[in-house]
Amino acid sequence: MARFFYIQVIWEDDLNARAIDQWTREIPVSAGRGNIYDRNGELLAGNVAAYSIYARANAVTDAEETAALLAGALSLSYDDLLSKLTDRSRSEIVLVKRAEKSVVEQIEGADLAGVYYARDDRRFYPHGSLACQVLGFTSYDGSGSTGLEQYYNEYLAGEKGEILFETDLVGVDLDGATAAYIPGEDGLDIRLTLDYRIQALAEEIMARALAEYSAKAARAIVLDVTDFSVLAMVNLPSYDLNEIPRNDLSALNALSRNALVSDVYEPGSTFKIVTAAANIEEYLQGNPNAYATNKIFSSSRTRTVDGTTIRCWSDHANGKHSNQTLAEALNNSCNPCFVDIALSLGKETFYDYLAAFNFGRATGLDFSGEAIGMLLPESTLRDCDFARIGFGQTIAVTPLQLACASAAAVNGGYYYAPRLVDAIVSEDGAVVEQTQPVLVGRTVSEEASRILSSMLEGVVRDGSGKKAYIEGYRVAGKTGTAQKYENGHIAQGKYVSSFVGYFPADQPEYLTLVIVDEPQGAYYGSTVAAPCAKEIFEGIIDLLQLPPSEE
Asked: How many other C-beta atoms lie within 10 A of the C-beta of residue 284?
């Protein structure tokens, strides 16, 4: 009785499953993969109806005729098909994947014994290469391989279904038996924070810069300063998501990499935003070592630290860069002034600010493969290296880290976790999961942020960022020109030109970081990158019909 109870009750589900597996053959049915939309409902990744065609050799009654018909319909070799259709050592054989519906209808009309088909949709990207490194792509089996397709695969994938056929022991369909259909459960859709209009605009502008300066790469981020939602991410060169170069893995890895998130670089003078923010906050807090906003820096072109001479990019001839305040040092992008600031604040204090601005750790973006940057341990840092951090050398950051730090310096001091997805939604548009802005911490006070922003507005109005100026709009920002290193030495003639800017300066909403890697000819950030930022801002103004500032 105990054994009878065990078999009938405890073992029931397992025995039923074994029995069904013995008298049925399954054809998998792919679930509909969820769509990806931008913040306005524009489709960025969807599906095209397609089907996989299978055969069971044991159930094929006339292999020659079946092979002939399939060879014509599928454009496959007759001999290969005949070999597969007569190979009775295998149960199901996949003849072709992702065939069009017209092909399936042709085969269905021939009523071929032992030949079956099932839904197997093909992924389609309506805008081709748009945001390709952000969206990512799927593998041959339909699961996410890179980008958001991979990160949110659990939501997008859904649950596969099956078509069950009752068969005899060797797999031949039973007469009079009907197929059982177990439908798949379609995946959920995701709605991004990206605005495809801003994304397309930024890609077009950066493509022109890439061509004009024969650069190695051109990149840009557009960030909502109020909550760090990502409006655009541009990585050029790019590729068409509908024509993925799967046969060249090295090219595919290079083209599909989201360098804004995964790669690091020395930011150069754009990092002076962080140094200035730390100094202003310490000055407001009464730190006697901090430079007052009206204090005059030494006009010397050089500073010597640990026996190492650090020079300004300018020769300081004819009184250039003399009698500078902090605002003027930002306008002129004078390196020695920021050496003075870093050394005056000291390693411990300055590293506290680097931690507050989230350097040396991930920003928390909902994306795989985020780098944490390179920040030398405070305990091992030489003074000469520490001095260089003040103006953006001896530290490596991701572009995303710099964009977020800059935003947190000018938005009142609020550092949020950046995000790419706004919501998970069902097919009928109902919100299943809503993402919310996450405040990571405070960087500086609102007063320090306000003072800094007024200075950065001066950089665009009067200083090195003039080519980002837009009449009637309060644009602020900072240029950067960083030398590149190879094998531990400066690579002659190789630079990274950049500009980080935002508007309106008094109530920041839109921030962009523009990076042009190894431009040929002109290479200063003020010449190469700032005009790109201006075009992006002008495009946003036109798209969103933003009125001029009252002042």
From this structure: 15
**Coil, helix or strand for 63?**
helix
Residue with tokens 């928390």: 364
Amino acid code (one letter) for 120: D
pLDDT class of 172 with cuts at 50, 70, 90? low
Task: Return the ∠ at Cα 167 (arms to 163 and 168), rounded to 5°.
Answer: 165
Query: How far apart are alpha carbons 397 and 259 in whole angstroms?
Result: 11
292: left (phi over 0), alpha (psi -120 to 50) or beta: beta
Model pTM? 0.88
Residue with tokens 């150069």: 268
411: region left, alpha or beta (phi > 0 left; psi from -120 to 50 alpha): alpha
The answer to whether residues 222 and 197 touch, using CB atoms and an 8 Å cutoff, is no
Residue keyed to tokens 């993402």: 435
Count the alpha carbons within 13 Å of 89 in the hemisphere toward its beta carbon: 2
Cα(146)–Cα(157) distance, integer angstroms = 14
Asked whether the bond before 504 is cis by omega within 30 degrees of 0, the reply is yes
Tokens 């159930």 sit on residue: 59
Q: Are 39 and 195 in contact (CB under 8 A)?
A: yes
Task: State the Cα–Cα distance between residues 46 and 26, nearest whole angstrom.
Answer: 27
Adjacent-strand bridge partners of 447: none
Cα 49–chain centre separation? 28
Classify 28 as helix, strand or coil: strand
Residue with tokens 């290193």: 485
59-92 pLDDT, tens digit per residue, is: 888 888 888 888 888 888 888 888 888 887 777 7
Strands 161-166, 431-434: parallel, antiparallel or unpaired by DSSP?
unpaired
Q: Which of 13, 548, 496 is nearest to 268 (CA)?
A: 496
Beta strand 308-311 pairing with 302-305: antiparallel
Which residues are catalytic, by number?
Answer: 269
Residue count of the chain, please give it: 551
Tell me the mean pLDDT in the region 348-374: 96
Residues 6+ positions from 322 with CB-CB distance below 8 Å? 299, 316
92-99 and 51-56: which strand pairing?
A: antiparallel
CB 417 within 8 A of CB 363: yes
Q: Taking phi first (over 0 means left), then psi (-120 to 50 degrees means alpha), and beta for anything else, what does residue 171 get?
A: left
* Mean pLDDT, all residues of the chain: 91
Cα Rg of the chain (Å, integer): 30
pLDDT at 178 > cutoff 70: no
Distance, in Å, from the CA atom of 222 to the CA atom of 200, rounded to the nearest integer, reads: 12
Question: How many whole angstroms separate alpha carbon 79 and alpha carbon 302?
Answer: 79
What is the rounded average pLDDT of the residues 441-453?
98
Beta strands in 417-505 (DSSP E): 421-425, 431-434, 439-442, 476-486, 489-503
Rounded Cα distance, 95 and 149, in Å: 27
Task: Kindly indicate the confidence band of residue 116, based on its pLDDT and cuts at 50, 70 and 90.
Answer: confident
Query: Tokens representing 115?
Result: 């030949």
